[in-house]
Amino acid sequence: MEELLEKKVRDMYVEEGMSAGELVRQMKEAGGFTAKNLGIGAEILCDMFADTSCKRFLSFPACIVSTGLRGVLAQSVKDFSVIITTCGTLDHDLARAWGGGYYHGSFEYNDEELHRKGINRLGNILIPNDSYGPLLEEKMHPILEELCAQKEEWGARELIHEFGKKVVDKNSILHQAAKHDVPVYVPGITDGAFGTQLALFAQDHKFKLNILKDEKELSDIVFDAKSSGALMIGGGISKHHTIWWNQFKGGLDYAVYITTATQYDGSLSGARLQEAVSWGKIKERAKYVTIDGDATVLLPLLLAACYEERA
Question: What is the pLDDT of residue 310?
Answer without folding.
Answer: 87
